[in-house]
Amino acid sequence: MDMRTDDKLKTASPSENAASIEVQEKIATTPGFQRQPTSWIGRKRGAAGRFTLSPINRRRWENFKANRRGYWSFWLFLVLFVLSLGAEFIANDKPLLVSYKGELLSPVLVDYPESKFGGFLATTDYKDPFIIDEIEQNGWMIWPPIRYSYTSINKDYPRIKGPEDRCLGFPAPPLWATSAELCEAPADQLARFNELGNRNWLGTDDQGRDVLARVIYGFRISVLFGLLLTFFSSVIGVTAGAVQGYFGGRVDLFFQRVLEIWSSIPSLYVLIIISSVLVPGFWTLLGVLLLFQWVSLVGVVRAEFLRARNFEYVTAARALGLSDRKIMFKHLLPNAMVATLTFLPFNLSGSITALTALDFLGLGLPPGSPSLGELLAQGKANLQAPWLGLTAFFTLATLLSLLIFIGEAVRDALDPRKTFR
Amino acid sequence: MKTRQPLVQVRDLSVAFRSGDTTSLAVKGVSFEINKGETVALVGESGSGKTVSALSIMRLLPYPAASHPTGEILYDGKDLLKASEAEMRDIRGARISIIFQEPMTSLNPLHSIEKQVGEVLKLHRGMEDKAIRARVLELLRRVGLRDPEKRLSAFPHQLSGGQRQRVMIAMALANEPDLLIADEPTTALDVTIQAQILELLKELQSELGMAMLLITHDLGIVRKMAERVYVMNNGKVVEEGKTADIFADPKHPYTRHLISAEPKGEPPPMNPAAPIVVQTDDLKVWFPIRKGLLRRTVDHVKAVDGLSLKLRAGQTLGVVGESGSGKTTLGLAIMRLISSKGPVAYLGKRIDGLNSKAMRPLRKEMQIVFQDPFGSLSPRLSVGQIIEEGLLIQQPHLSYDERRARVAQALSEVGLDPEAQDRYPHEFSGGQRQRIAIARAMVLEPKFVMLDEPTSALDMSVQARIVDLLRDLQERHNLAYLFISHDLKVVRALSSYVIVMRNGKVVEEGPSEEIFRAPKTDYTKALLAAAFDLKVEHRGALAV
Questions:
Q1: How do the pLDDT tens digits run along chain B, 544 residues long?
Q2: Is the CB of residue B358 less than 8 Å away from at least one CB of chain A?
Q3: Which among B360, B379, B472 has CB closest to A37?
Q4: Does B380 touch chain A (CB under 8 A)?
Q5: Whose CB has fewer CB within 10 Å in chain B, the N or C terminal residue?
Q6: Among A313, A338, A418, which would you mutate to test the B interface (most chain B Cβ atoms within 10 Å of its Cβ)?
Q7: Taking CA B69 as the corner, what is the angle to CA B68 and CA B72, rounded to the nearest 5 degrees?
Q8: CB proximity B51 to A under 8 Å
Q9: Inter-chain contact A15–B47, Cβ cutoff 8 Å?
Q10: Which 459-498 residues of chain B touch chain A by CB within 8 A?
């Protein structure tokens, strides 16, 4: 069989680009076509067995990297997030490693009763002078850089002198930010207070808890909450949008109306009502916020499915006898993933803001949890202690800006019409 | 011929495209010239660089990514490649204008016809609204749009493809350009409309005395339209000369290959004894038109209206007609991919009324190949995954290795390297992709295949080979084909029996030699004239 020209077209690499441009042109000008071959899942090269990116994904990754701001934001966010995942090893009121009477102990991982160190309480307070003395005399201990957890109170803070030489209580400012003198205190307390690891780098909140430790834990809980909420709302939203778009017709008509009603409910008020009835907790909050978050993706996914369900390869799949569910997963979902992926960082920042807002109103996480919203509320209640509000503000601003920058970069990288450089 | 200054002179033009870190040359040192009032054709297959060369004249390439390492384009003594963007704007649409292949998307769907055509006049001539309206009317009348007064406020979706292309031409001609670039102006149109548009272009050209640069892969059009031809292959001009000379005595092997590329061969002879694979009797596909608050059905769009056919094993039934005649709907109804009324029998068993589960075992015996090799393969799956998809459903007991073997076998059967199964569709040319689509159908060893314009989106020379492949497969596996096409040349090469459809009804049917030799109805005659001679005949029988 004569295959000359077919082969020629295949092997003529210099003209391939022209061919693909012409092809893309034709595709772009014909309705119902894919704009260009896109494969969003990495591909496996049979022989090498190594996981490599498909060309289109390589191009996207290159485009993402070309956006310096988004690229650096991505890494910075990743570093911050990974560090905050190990918050227990960075800010904790328990030492990382203890050598006591020849025995190596890791209090961060294991709860030792106080009896181990000669006391009688069920849990050990490693900041208790008695315990510290006991351990130092029979061994040594390594502390994390910040010796506070999000619940630990700085009992050694000697109070600072305010106007008319009155000794003020908490919230206490970070030492580097104040010129006020300290009130008198026993020498051993001052010695402990002045130890580098015991410093409150960002001051304390109104209960004497270290703000920096709370910010670290608060960052973690915010991001984790946001990620979970985004994940679940994407799963629900994509499913709903997929069903609507794929089946169209009456299903679509009905669900569109439901969505319209649902999304016009003022969600914050409903959340306030619900969270005053339910016992607040991480998972209940997640569920409550999920009620309203999942709507955001439905429209996009629905549109993608509506567009793609008439593609010829979908009809071909039906002619092969594939079931609806298989077609949706195998052929249509990948089309919708680009749109979904573009929205993810923005949804993530939206989720974080929602949690912060509820916490700020006091309807969020249970009291005592480290949360940025609660810190903001404290800042509002204690205007004389600007380190509270400023810390919460800058943490949130950094976190949200990073996410937005990443989101912009992702959006541009997935836009096939954008050329960089 | 006396020596004179050519209108446009392209010298040693190269075009490079950069993607990522790699730069590739799409056009490599091409030179051609166009004289005043002359029609010049750039011929070549997709990817030969003809469109890119022509777009360079108007500097319409995606410029940060595209560049011209060498060359100059002289127009009116000026090098267009060095002209400023402001100068280019004065030239585009006024002195040099262009019509594109796809009239569907070249018009803005949100603007009325008057606004779109008038825009060029306003931009370049600064005419007043009243004068614009008069000129637009004149232009629309000139390009043969019926009732131009009524069409002024029409939107593109209210016009047919041919009418849209006429509007595009009116836009291009609004400022009486010196040069009209026609980039595959009829490829997306029906044969009958194609003949009309070509005739119109020819008339207008001689009337206005403008030059035309025609870009096409269809040598029939070149022969009819062009005075001189440049044959392009792989970014280079391989042969040039007067049209008559080139056709009479092609020098370059590539030109010879192009000229000999028409679909040839004979369909298998009629065999009335062969078992009937598919039979329909008075098949109807009516789409209801609903109106009013209660969505009552007031009328029907009769896409297929009372069609009876018999298709025997090893035979091809050709269904021809213009777009909108219901050909594809008929095929989909037989495949039970849309609902229909009237009995459809497969191997003597009624299959209308079966639900999708009951249809599933039959699916492997009834397959489709689509028109568009780009749209019919999922770009996200490898070739192997695409082809094995049917096997996964129909023969789930096969192991991974058995499936791969079956896929490899199917690929080699359609003339592709079995190694291709680990690659992705975008790495293949149009013809190769169509082979993949055929392999996807063949791997299930079907008895009946619906071919929905399988060659229309392909280059001429590739078409011929796909036709050969289809005939070969039919012979080997005793397949029954339902061949749907508006391209009568291909139909003649494949079908033994032909049905001519129009508006959902059969206009004429019979053994294909009879239809092609002695068509009875005016409509069939007009179709044949348009397809084989690019002529407009029996105007009354055709839509405009």
A1: 445 678 889 989 998 888 667 788 888 888 998 988 889 999 888 778 888 888 888 888 888 778 888 888 988 888 888 888 888 888 888 889 888 877 777 888 888 888 888 888 888 888 888 888 888 998 888 888 888 888 888 888 888 777 888 888 888 888 888 899 998 888 777 777 888 888 888 888 888 888 999 998 888 888 888 999 999 988 889 999 999 888 888 888 888 888 887 777 778 777 788 888 888 888 888 888 777 777 777 777 888 888 888 888 888 999 988 877 888 888 888 888 888 888 888 888 888 878 878 888 888 888 888 887 778 888 778 888 888 888 888 888 888 888 889 999 999 888 888 888 888 887 787 888 888 999 988 898 899 999 988 887 777 778 888 888 898 899 888 889 999 988 888 888 888 899 998 888 888 988 888 888 888 888 888 888 888 877 776 665 555 4
A2: no
A3: B379
A4: yes
A5: N
A6: A313
A7: 60
A8: yes
A9: yes
A10: 459, 461-462, 465, 468-469, 472
B380–A41: do the CB atoms touch at under 8 Å? yes
Q: Which residues numbered 69-98 in A keep a CB inside 8 Å of some CB on B?
A: none
Whole-Å CA distances, B330 to B99, B114, B308, B343: 33, 37, 10, 13
Find, in chain B, the residue whose alpha carbon is nearest to that of A19: B47
Phi-psi region of B471 (alpha: psi -120 to 50; beta: other; left: phi over 0): alpha
Q: What is the DSSP string of B290-311?
A: EETTTTEEEEEEEEEEEEEEEE
* Residue that is written with structure tokens 């001009």 in the block: B237
Side chain identity at residue A13, one-letter code: S
**Phi-psi sector, A415: left (phi>0), alpha (psi -120 to 50), beta:** beta
Q: Are A35 and A24 in contact (CB under 8 A)?
A: yes
Please state the pTM of the whole predicted model: 0.71
* Paired tokens of A112: 């030792």
ipTM above 0.90, yes or no: no
- The amino acid present at B462, given as its one-letter code, is V
Task: Using the structure block, give the residue that is written with the tokens 């392009």.
Answer: B232
Read off the tokens for B31: 């030179």
Residues 60-79 of B with CB under 8 A from A: 62, 64-65
